[in-house]
Amino acid sequence: MIETKDNFNADLFRKTLGCFPTGVVVVTTCGDGGAPVGVTISSFNSVSLDPPLVLWSLALDAPSLSAFRQHSSFAINILSAEQKSLCMQFSKPSEDKFRNVSWTPGLDGVPVLCDTLAVLECHNYRRYEGGDHEIFLGEVLRIGSNKKMPLVYHRGQFAELIDTAA
Questions:
Q1: Peptide bond between residue 51 and the one before it cis (omega within 30 degrees of 0)
Q2: How many CB atoms lie within 10 A of CB 109?
Q3: pTM of the model
Q4: Exposed, middle or buried, 20 (CB in 10 Å: 0-12/13-18/19+)?
Q5: Domains of the chain
Q6: Which phi and psi (to 5°) does residue 164 adopt?
Q7: Tell me: the pLDDT tens digits for 31-41?
């Protein structure tokens, strides 16, 4: 059944968006005094090949928003299927989300998580208002990846892909 904007609420909208399976990433940057900052998101997308641009969004009430606004760079850490616990660790408010997390400093000191499926290190290119979110557009300056399987989220839960290359 098709509903018009006047007839659906935020819960139905979220449920409908959940029909689209997404990868899961942890976006990282540096906060006050260079402290590592990170948050789990699924609102990530490619934008352009030339220049290489990606976008993601963060809620305006997110505690980490000011760090992402103030730092010149961020990293998109695409999680592998084995990293569900890492996804959950960065999805909840915490004093130290990086506790027991292996990472190395990347572009401009931004934390790059170890053993992820892929990483894109980005310079903040532009930011846009987007309703109750802020949209970050990043120019990709460094990348890396491996052949692990991705962590996938669909209809409010993790899903698994079948590796047909084997």
A1: yes
A2: 12
A3: 0.92
A4: exposed
A5: 23-153 (2.30.110.10)
A6: -85, -5
A7: 999 999 999 99
